[in-house]
Description:
- This protein is mainly β.
Amino acid sequence: xxxxxxxxxxxxxxxxxxxxxxxxxxxxxxxxxxxxxxxxxxxxxxxxxxxxxxxxxxxxxxxxxxxxxxxxxxxxxxxxxxxxxxxxxxxxxxxxxxxxxxxxxxxxxxxxxxxxxxxxxxxxxxxxxxxxxxxxxxxxxxxxxxxxxxxxxxxxxxxxxxxxxxxxxxxxxxxxxxxxxxxxxxxxxxxxxxxxxxxxxxxxxxxxxxxxxxxxxxxxxxxxxxxxxxxxxxxxxxxxxxxxxxxxxxxxxxxxxxxxxxxxxxxxxxxxxxxxxxxxxxxxxxxxxxxxxxxxxxxxxxxxxxxxxxxxxxxxxxxxxxxxxxxxxxxxxxxxxxxxxxxxxxxxxxxxxxxxxxxxxxxxxxxxxxxxxxxxxxxxxxxxxxxxxxxxxxxxxxxxxxxxxxxxxxxxxxxxxxxxxxxxxxxxxxxxxxxxxxxxxxxxxxxxxxxxxxxxxxxxxxxxxxxxxxxxxxxxxxxxxxxxxxxxxxxxxxxxxxxxxxxxxxxxxxxxxxxxxxxxxxxxxxxxxxxxxxxxxxxxxxxxxxxxxxxxxxxxxxxxxxxxxxxxxxxxxxxxxxxxxxxxxxxxxxxxxxxxxxxxxxxxxxxxxxxxxxxxxxxxxxxxxxxxxxxxxxxxxxxxxxxxxxxxxxxxxxxxxxxxxxxxxxxxxxxxxxxxxxxxxxxxxxxxxxxxxxxxxxxxxxxxxxxxxxxxxx
Length: 714
């Protein structure tokens, strides 16, 4: 008899039994239907005992019991499984056992020699456990671990031995009684009671992984995070840090998701501080994003600190960040229009800057709209902008402007592309108590016209496509100097990305003047399955040297330096970029190189920078440094990380970080060393060693599939 016919016969038999005795396996006391499949079934009407054997499956909802033989005592409403069995509840809960005695609806009973695997992570082994109300598992003399336990590996990296463990399947909690934790067989921790979430829980209130550290400035330290759930869409984390030299730091984080956005707030403050005479030092960071009606978006961020060194002293945020920005922006983006209004303020952490001289932006407005020109063809655009800057010294700066521009492209049969561009920029300025301008009102109007000629040429050789494109751009604007204050156009950098720009000043307060020609040529090779590379080179030729740009920018004379860029890549494994500025005698004023390698075992990123003084306005000293980052994956378990930053002018290091990570299916250990040197702009050079140990199996800590359980104790 085939399996389908057997199944039909079993269902019919169970139906007859239920009609005769008023109760059967097919209908449980909990009124949830139970189905049974087997290769063979026998029934003794005298003893009312049903025996199913051969590929037996008992199915109750998502719960499936699989074994070779089942004895059902209808009179006593008891199911006996004399041999090995497996009970699976969905994909998250699997129980293997040597034998079991259950009631007829599988909700209560005794299971012997049991192994429980939760979410393919946490393994609980017990001599026996009682199942109560289909919800609780009460395991006695239990051993729990998320490490593999095999004949080749009988002692797991860590395990918890407990007199009794209660698993609440509904609440998804584990309760350990008289629990002893051992690491490599050595007892390291005992607690009379322990409550933890099981691996199916995404978020649960409780302690997180502690972090241990030691540094030359703070001494030995421990951070003990405590996580609190605030409903399904919000949570909070408290992380006190205690240091042996007397400092106590409290970190807090609040997160909340809304139907139209999200909010995150992080704060830190000291209850005691050994580094300064001040007891309370603090910082606050917040960011939020919300989608409003009529396609508007609200975006804001807050970053403030009580003093310049607090964040670097306690390694809060980005150690290289030397300015903290707070802002609020309301914007809307559509196909042919963009509008935004914002306010912002910067707190400087630099020793050579004074916060009172940094303006408060209140507010800044920007709007742009483009249309298809119905008369001349091409595209017509309008840009409206305004900004108000307020300083603590009482000075005020206000600018309002309206810019109109027009552009049209022509493509000729020989491939030549000609672009005509014209614009008129109008600005009105109002100043009060402003240095060198006092109380004044100034207006400026600056026209600009340009023609752009491009001739892209391409050729196919095998799989590769070669494209070479010579380009000449003629730009005119008046020679006269503008007479207005300059707030947003003080820093200018010349590179291949703005070689063909009409105006290399980044803002609205100044414009590039005079008649000039931007000339250059680019070559690129594209191969979707191999090496891609390209090079760009060009310069600016001027009719007159108007002295607009500072020394060292590469564009401070009548004819600019040559700007070049070389790019090389191979699929997603190799990426190299080099940018240079050099004069007619090939003297470099700028050289930047970036290299990224990404291979199965090794990933690296290296940066080299040489900048002559004043390449970026305000930089009075040259800059010559190199940075290297590397991650080496020695095996599935060991990963080594390193980062080093070196000042090549002084020959001294700036910062360094080194780390070792060991991770298997049940534990992740991170050991790190962080170094900050005196030349990095911080007051106190630091050396800090950090250690964290994370155990898998408690809460939803997903592991890579390569760490999945592949063997068991049974």
